[in-house]
TrEMBL record:
It comes from Serendipita indica (strain DSM 11827). The lineage of its organism: Eukaryota, Fungi, Dikarya, Basidiomycota, Agaricomycotina. SUPFAM superfamilies: Metallo-dependent phosphatases (SSF56300). Residues 355-592 form the PhoD-like phosphatase metallophosphatase domain. It holds the Pfam family PhoD. This is PhoD-like phosphatase metallophosphatase domain-containing protein.
Length: 701
């Protein structure tokens, strides 16, 4: 095999791996350009070799006498003439290798696919064109995202609670530099009107990348709303053409229980696997949008939580009842679905799939260092966010579904450890760009932190920041410094939150951008995840063991895994939304360390006397219940149903490459809420909220 052929084959394999398998940035910077240069040099060297030379040796004349063998007399003379013609390689002096004739199909395919030399100049030229096209495609994939100008106009819903919603708007080129959000409530049986309420005014400034976030307040719980964008005089702007909708969350003070669904995912990169015909597509988001469409009939109005889809009977009843009736239901410990008026609606109802209420992005919403790291300037980070929001695929999701999110390392730099230093490059610029597009739209938190918590009715969520405060992992056994993932302040806030929600929330979800489990192999699995911070992790698990119905949600690994910690605490790790998949087994089935699990059961003898029986079982501290590494497009749907407080359920569905790949249902523990639920307190709170929404609170006070 010639050097040219070897370089060509390696170039083609490397380019395919880079564009379709794993976009390792070293391929774009070093390997692919190096192989292409080697191919060119080798091909040029071969082309300048001397053409085969024909060497003609002068004729040799030899006279042969033919004699009689017996008499030795001359019979005749024979003249023998010899002329030698030798073909040699004029450059090397060796016989030249035969070339492919280019006539057969096999020879043609060999020349096109493997760059075998051919007598056909056209085939040799085709090989050169193919290799040049491949390196141009690799360059397009690597450098276009940071060189091309993206300037999308968009709006989306961020954090929603029982009385407000945050709205993100990007509107470049707005002459006035200001716009207003206008909104109205819609009812299942009434279409929206042309009468809009004036909402917050947003400053759209170039120095903020033409992006701002506003908050619509004083809303009703469990109610449907729509909004549009307008000039300050309330004249509607051309975008969005149709209202964007959302539904407020249930009141967290109500004990009537909830039934909802939310989505979890992380890690997405536009146009991977690479397709030059669809440069901005995020196929995983198209899959999510199609999956949402499959749950319900197509809505008549574009909404942010399928708000115009006719709600199921329970949701319809909740939206029809006032805050006061919800307070009565809460005070009497009667689920709203058990009230007589709602029972009539439910009598002939048929159960059906519910749409998701919101989505949590658990990190890597952009890739600042893949497929190419273009530096740490704030404009570089902003451009990558603009590219993502310019994607038609993502627009199909964020214009209909509220989204909250947290950064991981690739919004900053691979395996970033901030060490609680805000000025550590490139965190300042990376976090500023993140906050512009995601952070400012997340639920309220302290002004100087990015982690946050929120409620959906009787369910609580805490989203961790696993990058800003973490110390660099160490393998030095003599190190006296205790490594930390969360930092002292965040860890304190997490424990405080656990204390608050322990007996005030049915399900508790902790969202970590990196896996909690230590079962994964490799550096990322053992150092970049919680496995590299074992002491802090184990102490947290010690506490979580006594918290009922706590669930850990994570991402980052580009695999799906359902892990059980200490025989009780589930972890759901799912990614990527749209990125490469490892497609190989990188997870241990269970940990080497084990623990004792005690089972206590009550049995009755023949006389009816109860006896407690205790059994002890040795189980692994961690074990994988389900593991699916393959699939470029993964997300999880989690359906929560706490309407029956005695039997709260959580249903997991893992969707991989657009198909349901795994389902599991938990039956949680009953939680006896400890906060006051007296009629006076509940009704008083509802009345106060009612007066506030009617604009009468100031006169009362």
């Amino acid at each position: 095999m010639s050097t040219t052929v070897l370089f060509s084959i390696l170039l083609r394999l490397s380019t395919y791996f880079y564009l379709r398998v794993i976009p390792v940035h070293r391929f774009a910077r070093v390997i692919i350009p190096g192989l292409y240069l080697g191919y060119l040099v080798s091909a040029f060297t071969s082309s300048v070799e001397q053409e085969p030379a024909v060497v003609v040796v002068p004729e040799t004349v030899e006279i042969i006498d033919v004699k009689d063998a017996t008499t030795n007399q001359l019979i005749e003379e024979v003249v023998k003439v010899e002329s030698k013609v030798t073909v040699v390689n004029g450059h090397a002096g060796r016989p030249k290798a035969p070339l492919s004739s280019g006539n057969s199909v096999i020879d043609t395919l060999g020349s096109l696919l493997l760059s075998f030399p051919s007598k056909s100049r056209l085939l040799n030229l085709a090989g050169f064109v193919i290799n040049t096209a491949l390196i141009l495609l690799a360059a397009d994939f690597a450098y276009t995202p940071t060189l091309k100008t993206y300037d999308p106009i968009f709006t989306r819903v961020g954090a929603v609670d029982h009385s407000s919603a945050r709205i993100v708007v990007r509107y470049p080129g707005l002459e006035t530099g200001h716009l207003r959000i206008v909104w109205q409530r819609v009812h299942p049986l009434n279409a929206h009107t042309d009468i809009w309420k004036e909402g917050p005014i947003l400053d759209i400034e170039e120095e903020k990348d033409w992006t701002a976030t506003g908050k619509i307040s004083n809303l009703w719980p469990s109610a449907d709303y729509i909004y549009r964008l307008a000039y300050l005089n309330s004249t509607l702007l051309p975008y969005p053409e149709k209202p964007i909708g959302f539904k407020t969350f249930p009141d967290p003070k109500s004990s009537s229980g909830t039934h909802f669904k939310f989505l979890l995912g992380s890690c997405m990169l536009p146009n991977f696997p690479y397709n030059p015909l669809h440069p901005e597509r995020i196929k995983g988001m198209d899959i999510i949008a199609d999956w949402i469409d499959s749950l319900q009939p197509k809505p008549a109005v574009q909404t942010a939580a399928s708000t115009t889809v006719p709600p199921n009977p329970v949701e319809e009843a909740e939206s029809m009842l006032s805050d006061a009736s919800s307070a009565i239901a809460s005070a009497t410990n009667t689920p709203i679905s058990e009230l007589p008026i709602v029972k009539e609606i439910l009598a002939d109802a048929k159960p059906r799939e519910i749409p998701p209420s919101f989505m949590i992005l658990a990190g890597d919403a952009i890739y600042a260092d893949v497929p190419h790291y273009a530096g740490d300037k704030i404009e570089t980070f902003r451009k990558l966010y603009r590219r993502t929001f310019a994607s038609p695929s993502y627009r199909r999701v964020y214009e209909r579904l509220p989204i909250v999110g947290m950064y991981d390392d690739h919004e900053i730099k691979n395996n970033f450890a901030g060490e609680d230093e805000e000025t550590k490059p490139p965190f300042a610029n990376a976090s500023s760009a993140f906050n512009t597009y995601y952070g400012h739209a997340n639920p309220d938190s302290a002004s100087d932190v990015n982690y946050f918590d929120f409620r959906y009715g009787d369910n609580a969520f805490f989203v961790l920041d696993t990058r800003r405060y973490r110390s660099a992992p160490t393998t030095d056994p003599e190190s006296t410094q205790l490594p930390t993932m969360l930092g002292e302040r965040q860890l304190h806030d997490l424990y405080t939150w656990l204390g608050k929600v322990n007996s005030t929330a049915t399900w508790k979800f902790i969202i970590s951008s990196v896996p909690f489990t230590s079962l994964w192999h490799g550096y990322d699995g053992q150092q970049d995840s919680w496995a590299g911070y074992k002491i802090e992790r184990d102490a947290l698990l010690d506490t979580l063991f006594y918290v009922p119905n706590v669930v850990i949600l994570s991402g980052d690994r580009h695999e799906f895994a359902f892990i059980e910690h200490r025989g009780k605490i589930p972890e759901i790790s799912v990614s990527p939304i749209s990125m490469f998949a490892l497609n190989s087994m990188t997870l241990h089935k269970q940990s080497a360390a084990s623990m004792e699990k005690t089972y206590i059961d009550t049995i009755y003898d023949s006389e009816g006397t109860s006896v407690e029986v205790t059994a002890i079982e040795h189980i692994p501290e961690e074990r994988a219940i389900q593991y699916i590494p393959s699939g470029n497009y993964k997300f999880a749907s989690l359906e929560v149903d706490s309407r029956d407080w005695r039997r709260p359920t959580l249903t997991l569905e893992a969707v991989i490459n657009g198909k349901s790949a795994y389902k599991f249902e938990w039956i949680g523990q009953p939680v006896s809420f400890s906060y006051t639920s007296s009629l006076a307190v509940s009704f008083g709170g509802a009345l106060k909220g009612l007066l506030n929404k009617m604009g009468l609170m100031g006169s009362v006070l």
